[in-house]
Write a structure and sequence with these properties.
heterodimer, A: 309 residues, alpha+beta, Alpha-Beta Plaits, B: mainly alpha
């Protein structure tokens, strides 16, 4: 519960620090009182950490203990979502140069079948004389999701935290959701996914979307497992240019890892918009227009050839 | 033989006039006729029965069944490969996520609507000449609806979870609507095939030697309770009338809901309020085309020239022309207004149909499926059996490709550019497995029609007898 109250802090921390190593630093005392001190010998190697108060502190590496794995979230809980949250993403088109680091990180984190991409970076050009730009697209996690409306078996559903997730154990593979999605966000496992056997053997988790299964639909899940732990989705932390900012609309904050913005100000100042507003799908992903760009459009062309010959 | 025809004659002797008057219209016709059994010519009856009893397969029949079975086997092998390796054996990919399986599904649903057209609409409208065609129409309807349900399972990525539709079904999803109405339509169609069969089965049961032990057992299993009493006739006629009234809304619903699988999405080419009516008009057309083709083949194969007459082709020709005009009208609605506007999101899709990659198929479907049939059938000479048969084939083939055009071109024109996907995702041409399964399903549908025509009289015997007697009555 406590964790939830200062989750914004943790959230930012999480973005900066490597996962799973900081259990001890919020409550230093615990580490030394917990009895393990006797068994652990200081290694002499110090690690710098950022405390919740914003101070840099040094801790001996030996005293760091990994956070024990959280008990797996039950299916019912994973279908409900994280209470009190409403996730939102802002994609700043002026910063994107089609590096595709987001895509790489996403594919790796979700053990996607080679050739499948949940994140696509599309070359866009609205009219003859307008400037081209790169537009990364993820699942829009719509508030009026057309995919959820048409699913015959409730295999894809809207959670209370705004995430549209998929239960791969439920999906019958009718692909109606793919036809319904105007953003072409959905991906189908046409064959048995090429993933390591031990991962394939795991029970499916709605929050990690792992393992992918033959004959089912998948798509961007806003990294529900990461957000549950107060961390940023993989694409956000992987992007070196800070294109993606992710956060909770209830807290009015989004972060790209390096910077934190007040969501409402960001959208107002930079004239944010959503894709295909006219369809009434109410996406949770906002775009900032490609003005005052950090990179020329052409800088992304070379990288684009790898997947699009 | 003689003994047989006597039993048909006397069934309503104990019926008094008041009951006749109170009974419903259709029941009345039959009862009046059977009230005067003495005037019947039993030799004529025997001839009719002999002509119409199901016949054993000849050499051509056996070859035909063999070919169909071979296609089914190839299709089943292809499906085995699909089950084993996944839908990757098809050419469908993330953009074209529905391919010829779904077009084939729509085609089957469409063709199955003919059962309701010929049987129910004709019956309720009092169209008498259609009665020799009712069984053909019902058999086509049952076979097609069976394969519509099978092909939709074939299209599923995880068919082993089919039961989820029942255990986790969401009534908000058009797919569940489709499951409900297709199941309903299937049962009504089966009953509409079954009830009118009962008097014929009574006749069939008299020819034990001819039908063989096993078939005889089957006949007595499904129809031995039918004694042909006036009460039974009354009950059966009532039931058939109720079924005829109820199948019409169900038939409209199955094809409307099938069109909504597309029209409930945002996609260019599918996002149309015209879709329900457009699909139904097309369905009646392809169904009538299929009946015409089947009429011609059965007439040739079983020498039924006396029962399926040139006049039937003449009349069905008129029906097909009407339905073609109707379908053409909806096609104009469907394409002319978007063409006029050429909205940005629809422009690429429409150009693809009119002048691009799909132009050949598109104009073939429009010309062969509608315009040429209209031109041929408008003329009296065009409504002779052979031209009508050829038009029927054109209509059916045109309709199949029309369904392909409804599904695929739209999916190749998503709102966002097709990008960051393997090159194979950018186009669609069905793989051999898809062709094999599709052809196999079409062959399977024809196999069911063939087998049903082998087991049951393709033209209702009892009804033909009744009508003959009626004519004899009038002559006297």
């Amino acid at each position: 519960m406590d964790q939830e109250n200062n989750s914004r802090r943790n959230f930012l921390l999480g973005g900066l620090l490597a996962a799973g190593a900081i259990a001890g630093c919020n409550t230093n005392k615990d580490v030394f009182e917990s009895g393990i001190v006797g068994d652990v010998k200081p290694s002499g190697k110090k690690v710098k950490l950022l405390s919740v108060d914003g101070d840099v502190i040094e801790v001996d590496e030996a005293f760091l203990k990994p956070v024990p794995h959280m008990p797996p979230i039950s299916n019912t809980e994973a279908r409900k979502g994280i209470p009190g949250k409403k996730f939102v993403m802002v994609i700043d088109l002026s910063r994107c140069k089609n590096l595709k680091k987001c895509q790489e990180a996403c594919n790796h984190a979700h053990e996607l079948n080679p050739g499948e991409n949940w994140i696509k970076v599309e070359p866009m050009k609205s009219a003859e004389f307008t400037a081209p730009y790169w537009e990364p697209t993820t699942c829009m996690h719509c508030d009026e999701p057309p995919c959820v409306k048409v699913c015959p078996v409730d295999a894809t559903f809207k959670r209370e935290d705004g995430i549209v997730a998929i239960d791969s154990d439920r999906c019958i593979g009718c692909r109606f959701c793919m036809a319904a999605c105007p953003y072409s966000a959905r991906v189908f496992n046409w064959s048995e996914p090429e993933i390591p056997a031990e991962i394939a053997a795991q029970p499916y988790s709605i929050e990690t979307s792992i393992p992918q299964k033959k004959g089912t639909v998948s798509k961007c899940d806003f990294c529900a497992d990461m957000t549950r732990e107060g961390m940023l989705p993989h694409c956000v932390s992987a992007c070196p240019n800070g294109v993606f900012a992710f956060g909770d609309i209830n807290e009015d904050t989004v972060s790209n890892g390096a910077e934190t913005f007040r969501f409402s100000d960001l959208i107002k100042d930079k004239a944010g918009y959503r894709l295909m507003e006219d369809l009434g799908t109410k996406p949770s992903v906002y775009y900032l227009p490609p003005v005052n760009r950090n990179f020329p459009y052409e800088s992304g062309l070379e990288n684009d050839k790898i997947q699009n010959k | 033989m003689n003994r047989g025809s006597k039993t048909i004659k006397y069934k309503t002797n104990n019926l008094n006039e008041t009951t006749v008057e109170n009974s419903i219209l259709i029941a009345k016709e039959k009862i009046i006729v059977s009230l005067k059994p003495e005037k019947l010519n039993s030799a004529d009856d025997d001839k009719i029965i002999d002509d119409l009893l199901p016949q054993k397969f000849g050499k051509a029949g056996k070859i035909w069944v063999g070919i169909l079975l071979a296609f089914c086997m190839v299709g089943m092998f292809a499906y085995y490969r699909q089950l084993r390796y996944g839908l990757v054996v098809t050419s469908m990919r993330d953009y074209v996520s529905w391919g010829i399986y779904i077009s084939n599904f729509v085609f089957f649903v469409a063709i199955s609507l003919v059962g309701s057209l010929i049987t129910a609409v004709f019956r309720l409208a009092g169209v008498k000449w259609g009665s020799p065609l009712t069984r053909i129409a019902e058999i086509i309807a049952v076979a097609a609806i069976i394969f519509a349900s099978l092909i939709i399972i074939v299209d599923m990525g995880s068919p082993e979870r089919f039961y989820n539709l029942f255990t986790h079904g969401r009534i908000q999803s058009p797919i569940i609507w489709d499951v409900i109405v297709i199941t309903t339509y299937f049962f009504i169609s089966i009953l509409l095939l079954y009830y009118p069969l009962l008097p014929d089965i009574k006749i069939l049961l008299r020819f034990k030697e001819r039908s063989g032990v096993r078939l005889h057992k089957f006949y007595s299993f499904i129809g031995s309770f039918w004694k042909g009493t006036p009460e039974q006739f009354k009950l059966s006629d009532k039931a058939i009338n109720i079924l005829c009234v109820s199948i019409i809304p169900v038939a409209f619903t199955i094809h409307t809901v099938t069109s909504w699988l597309f029209a409930t999405t945002y996609r260019p080419g599918w996002d149309s309020t015209n879709f329900g009516a457009y699909f139904i008009a097309g369905a009646f057309l392809v169904g009538a085309g299929a009946v015409v083709v089947a009429m011609y083949i059965f007439r040739k194969a079983y020498h039924l020239e006396k029962y399926i007459t040139d006049n039937h082709f003449e009349k069905m020709g008129r029906v097909v022309v009407l339905l073609s005009l109707l379908y053409l009208y909806f096609n104009v609605n469907e394409f002319l207004t978007p063409f006029f506007k050429m909205k940005e999101s629809e422009a690429a899709y429409l150009n693809g149909l009119f002048t691009g990659n799909f132009a050949l198929v598109f104009w073939f479907a429009i010309l062969a499926g509608m315009i040429v049939p209209i031109l041929i059938l408008l003329f009296k000479k065009g409504r002779k059996p052979l031209p009508v048969f050829i038009v029927g084939i054109m209509v059916v083939v045109g309709a199949w490709f029309k369904r392909y055009l409804i599904v695929t071109p739209t999916l190749l024109h998503p709102f966002l550019p097709m990008h960051d996907v393997p090159a194979s995702y950018h186009h669609y041409f069905p793989s051999w497995e898809e062709w094999a399964i599709t052809v196999g399903s079409l062959a399977g549908c024809m196999l069911i029609i063939t087998l049903l025509a082998r087991i049951f009289p393709i033209i209702p015997i009892q009804e033909t007898l009744t009508e003959q007697h009626e004519i004899a009555e009038q002559n006297i």
